[in-house]
Amino acid sequence: MRKIGFQIAKGGVGKTTSAGHIALGVSLRGKKVLAVDADPQGNLTSWLSIHAPKYELSDVLNEIATLEQAIIPLTGNLSLLPTFAHGSTLRDFAELKLLQRPFTFRALVKNIETLGFDFVVFDMSPGSSSLEKMIIAALDEIITPLTPEFFSVDGLTTFVETLSWINKNLEGNVKHERIILNNFNRSFAQHLLFSEEIKRLKYHIYTIAQERPLADGQKDHLTAWDIRSKNIPEFERLAADLLGV
After folding, report:
1. What contacts 141, CB < 8 A, 6 or more positions away?
2. Going along 105-211, which residue ranges are E strands?
3. Which CATH number is 10's domain given?
4. Distance between CA atoms of 152 and 174, rounded to whole angstroms?
5. Number of domains comprising the chain
6. pTM higher than 0.85 for the full model?
7. What is the residue range of 158's domain?
8. How does pLDDT run across 171-206, given as a tens digit for each residue?
9. How far is CA 45 from CA 23, 25, 41, 57, 148, in A?
10. Is 243 exposed, middle or buried (0-12, 13-18, 19+ CB in 10 A)?
């Protein structure tokens, strides 16, 4: 089972949008995918789940519910392990129990694999607390979404340092080879300059064009495929690359 996460130490760069669309894109290629909402704000859940979930990720971690009870089937091969948008106890779990149970997320992904999933995709908050670090250490790869602005580069630099620490001190073996450049507008000179700067860093770059309906559709539980987004080919390209096809 492949274990992928979306993370950078900066908010508002499209982590949730990227995680949700790549989870869906991989599932549309016939793989059984679980999207895990590991952000205490629960934005992925608010977007992808029409009905309020009965259980959330922290209920599984606290052994209040089983994985089977908490997982919500969404569409086709895609399912969701949710986090409540309001009243989540995920941050409380991280602050009160996680340090005493440092291999919690390694155990979680093993249990997810026993349910027959081919891919698990984690959406995380922009923090670098123990919660995010322990999740990252349990994964195979982190993909970083960026927006074309100066402070995104700072966030990328900070994340690279954090990932190096995780791989050294938490026995991680996490790759970091791909960047999603979100909200890109080729008519803006600043965006073009930023794109050239990112290309010099030798990452695989995936470019998602600025598109208002893509952001607006989330409040109505719509995806790129629902609105026939012009960005579908790029989401599909990344999904195919992750599958090696």
Report:
1. 2, 3, 4, 5, 174, 175, 176, 177, 178
2. 119-124, 141-146, 175-184, 204-209
3. 3.40.50.300
4. 21
5. 1
6. yes
7. 2-243
8. 889 999 999 999 888 888 888 888 888 888 889 999
9. 13, 17, 9, 11, 26
10. middle
